Amino acid sequence: MAEQLTRETVEPVIERAAFDAKGLLPAIIQEASTRDVLMMGWMDAEALRRTLTEGRVTFWSRSRQEYWRKGDTSGHFQYVRSAALDCDGDTLLVTVDQVGAACHTGEHACFDVDPLDPTIGSPND
User: Fold this and answer.
1) Which three-class secondary structure string do you get for the chain?
2) What's the whole-number mean pLDDT along residues 77-93?
3) What kind of fold does domain 11-100 have according to CATH?
4) 32: which of 63, 81, 89, 98 fits an S-S bond (Cβ 3.0–4.6 Å)?
5) pLDDT digits (tens, 9 = 90+) for 44-56
């Protein structure tokens, strides 16, 4: 088992992350128990650092230009269970124990709000 990241040991991970031109990284949040994709948020280096070392998910709000930690105002917390950068280092997957709704609308997941009806593909097509 890997050693837990601390403020001192997280820097190599931050250096591996491929932040966009605005210094942001998309973070996909997945529920550990159900594997449901709950939401996507943005992290800068400090939000990533806090998420990996504090055990709670922290995002950077592009609209408010401030950090926000899931649950501090809503009571709907996200406790980190695992995290991984994708193969290019430009997207983060965070698996969480979700307490309450993940979406700001009160839905369990942000993707429950506007389901689409796409054409279903098949490998035989």
Assistant:
1) CCCCCCCCCCHHHHHHCCCCCCCCEEEEEEECCCCCEEEEEEECHHHHHHHHHHCECEEEECCCCEEEECCCCCCCCEEEEEEEECCCCCCEEEEEEECCCCCCCCCCCHHHCCCCCCCCCCCCC
2) 97
3) Ubiquitin-like (UB roll) (3.10.20)
4) 81
5) 999 999 999 999 9
User: Using CA of residue 92, residue 110, residue 31, residue 64, what is the dihedral sign?
Assistant: positive
Long-range contacts of 15-21 (CB under 8 A, 24+ apart): 16/85, 16/89, 17/45, 17/48, 17/85, 17/89, 17/90, 17/92, 18/88, 18/89, 18/90, 19/44, 19/45, 20/90
111 phi, psi to nearest 5 deg: -85, 0
Pairwise CA distance, residues 107 & 111, whole Å: 9
Pairing relationship of beta strands 58-61 and 37-43 according to DSSP bridges: unpaired
For 58-77, what is each residue's pLDDT tens digit? 999 999 999 999 889 889 99
Name the residue ranges covered by the structural domains of the chain.
11-100
